[in-house]
Every structure is written in structure tokens, then in C-alpha cells.
Amino acid sequence: MRARELHLNVNLLHSGVYPSAWRLPGSQADAFVDIAHFIRVAHVAERGKLDAIFFADTPAINDRLDYRPLNALEPTIVLASVAAATRHIGLIATASTSYNEPYNLARRFASLDLVSGGRAGWNVVTTGRSPSWKVTPARSVKVYSVPSGEIVHCVASQGAKLPSGLLATRESM
């Protein structure tokens, strides 16, 4: 019988779980755009021997003014900065298969995986409706859940080829 494992991650929130916590006195209201904040959280997680940090995202801007701006920064960019400041912690980001093309997803996550030394993870989501009326899905919302598995396969195969598939030697040019 295989031993069971428990993996512990921390959700990268900039001011706590309560959506309006950023408005409280003493909170860092601009933490959502402060890379140093995310790096501090990652350092604490790494010292605590957690497996990964998780950066949730959505392709829409929240229309609730009392809520914090959840998605001001692009997750893989934030995690690439965190990767440069950490050594072991895993780096997981959310990206929607409905609002991103497979090639772009593969490129972003393969790049994060490369710069982090193999620590990148992808939280795959499909997005049926967006609260932001100006956001248009990359594919028809009617079939948004159908191609998700195909997109994951495409991204995984492209991402696996990026580091070893790049030939930049004099002999290969």
C-alpha cells in the first residue's frame, strides 16, 4: 500500500481572506501591486516547509468597490519574481483555458518553469461567464469546457519541449 501524502500550499492574498481587509487600518492597501509583499509571503512559506504558493486569478475585474483588486498583476509575472527570490517553494498560478490561447499558456508556464528551475504549476480553469462585460473569451463560451482537456495536452506537450527544444548554438544556426 502506497503511503498517503499531504501537500500544503499558501494562497497568495495581499491582505487576508476577508475581501475588504485591505481597507482596515494598519493593512497595506497597496499590497496587491507590491512584489515585495508576495516575496515576503513566499519566504515565510518556504521557511515553514510548505510545498507551494498559489496565485489565484480570474480574467475579469471585480465590480465590487469594497473588495480588493484581486487581479491587478499577471500571476506568472509575479511568480517569476518570486522564483528569483526563493529556492524550493513551488509556484502555482491560475490561468483560464477560455480566455487564453494554448500557445500563450504554454509559453508563459514553460517560461516560469524554466526560470524557476522546474517549480511551476498550473491551476487549470475554464471560465464560462465573466463579470467584466468587455472581456471576450478566446473560444465560444458555449463550448468552453469541451476543449479544456485538449488545451491542457497542447500546453503540456509544448511546455515540455521548450527548454530542450531550443537550439541556439553556432552549429544549429
3D structure, described in words:
It is a single chain. The chain has 173 residues and is α/β, with parallel strands linked by helices. The protein has a single domain, classed as Luciferase-like domain (TIM Barrel, Alpha-Beta Barrel), CATH 3.20.20. It is 32% helix and 12% strand. The chain is built from four helices and four strands; from the N terminus they run βαβαβαβα. Strands 1-2-3-4 form a four-stranded parallel beta sheet, covered by helices on one side. Strand 1, helix 1 and strand 2 form a beta-alpha-beta unit. It is globular. About 9% of the residues have low confidence.
Please summarize what this structure is:
This protein has 173 residues and is of the alpha/beta class.
